[in-house]
Amino acid sequence: MVTEPSRTARLEDIARHCRAHILRMTHRAAAGHPGGSLSEIDILTALYHQRLRVRPEEPDWPDRDRFILSKGHASPGMYAILAEKGFITHSDLESYRVLGGICQGHVDMKWTPGVDFSAGSLGMGLSFGIGCSIAARLDESERTTWVMLGDGELQEGSVWEAVMAAKHHELGNLKVIVDMNGIQNDDFVDVQMRMFDIPAKWSGFGWPVKVIDGHDMEEILDGIAWADSITDGPAVIIAHTVKGKGVSFMENNPAFHGAAPSDEQLAQGLEELGFDGGEL
Amino acid sequence: MMAASRDGYGDGLLEISNDRHVVVLEADLGKSTKSLHFRKANPERTVSCGIGEQNMMLIAAGLASCGYKPFASTFAIFTERAFEQVRNGIARPNLPVHICGSHGGSHTGTDGSSAQSIEDLAIYRSLPNMTVMHPCDDVSASVLTQQCLELSGPSYMRTARNKTPVIHAEREAELQIGKGVLLKQGSDVALIACGVLVSKSLEAAAELENAGISACVIDMHTIKPLDTKLLDDIVIDTGCVVTAEDHSIIGGLGGAVAEHLSSSTPVPLERVGVKDRFGESGQAEEMLDLLNINTADIVEAAKRAIERKNRS
Question: Is this prediction's ipTM beyond 0.90?
Fold first, then answer.
């Protein structure tokens, strides 16, 4: 698939703005999960701006595609893309982790327009997505369900109940993306619990697998098109990503799984992203 | 006539199967929970989840989020395996998923303590948004299953494996989620029961009658929301209460009644239930005897409650 440079550049610029939102949100809240938000954001940008059939002006449109962020702690990334897409306002982002705010600590379908799943505990999103996919099949709708999982999350055994079930039921309207950034809460995934060949595990359950660079916009768009081309069963994209991508001191640094940037770090991060302190 | 409440669940599902949004989820126990009848009639709306309860609960949640009305069933004890999925994936977003846990309580018998859920009512009662039910017979299990369609949030219903006396035949119209049923009038003590101990409470009331004691009997099939109005009305008449359940005395029907009465009308209360222990393999009746939750135990509890009332 040949992508016009202008489209790729446009998506990359949206992702760049989202990265700045992520830094500002976590800095303002003095809490949250910047690392996994920065690793997922290029994929979210491509999905929301190129693929998902959703209506920001009608977030509950019944026949919308569903997006399930199973790694729901990476909510700043989700809120950033919802703001860029117009589901929520940029000022709503200031409510992240604030009492009464619509941007809850973990993504929550009851609080935020455009959120399809109340996450928080890992290992739940794929199962929920199966339910959405079966509903679409029963409705004879062509809508699709996209589920994003983290790689650390794959350590939850219930994920593999869902992997088995989605294939058993041959849900051709279900697409999974694994944001494989190699880091979990306490340390690197390979330190906490080695999982060896992750693509082989999925293919062992009968899933078609495509491995991509989750920060290369052309590869992401190719991967999405590939997943869409598979309609006789579920498909999974394994995206190699870098935790903290785009902010030098956060990149591949387990410390920024669940830690907010300081004032100085915020300023440095925004500068690295091409924003001065006052912009945005 | 004898029947098992799990058969009522199976009948209830068939009764509402014309609603195209009703879907049934199974975890390899459809023959036991009795969802198999729905499956045979509506295979396209039945989802086999294999032996995977955590996955099943969340598939149900996803279906509910898209406007479907999922009924997910397995043994009561195995629903507990998916507690966090129920808590975070169903109760928290208030999705109308209806969970049926069959084979609940010690009454399930010879499978032994691993299968005897005696804490399910307590744990589901602790979740916001959940309706919690434990019908006493097949008739009420069927009616309450059908009424789940009227709920805007999730529910948990425990059914029993073994046959017990049919209580509510020809009385379907009296059954309503959240409303206790006064089965027998009485003025000295109120016996408030759920599930398999409803028929035992009726037996106990008859024995008490022979001893000159007038006991009323209530089938409190809905543990949450508790029918506090009926409770308040009844204790004004009787002045003391016995609860009876095949469940831990901690947090179930007895716990719910105690919590309510302690803040409204404190009266002597005796809780007949499993006293903070596990069961073992045995026949249903043997289990009720072993755990001191049979008819004789309800009779003794009633006498203690009345004695405490008279002392105060």
Answer: yes
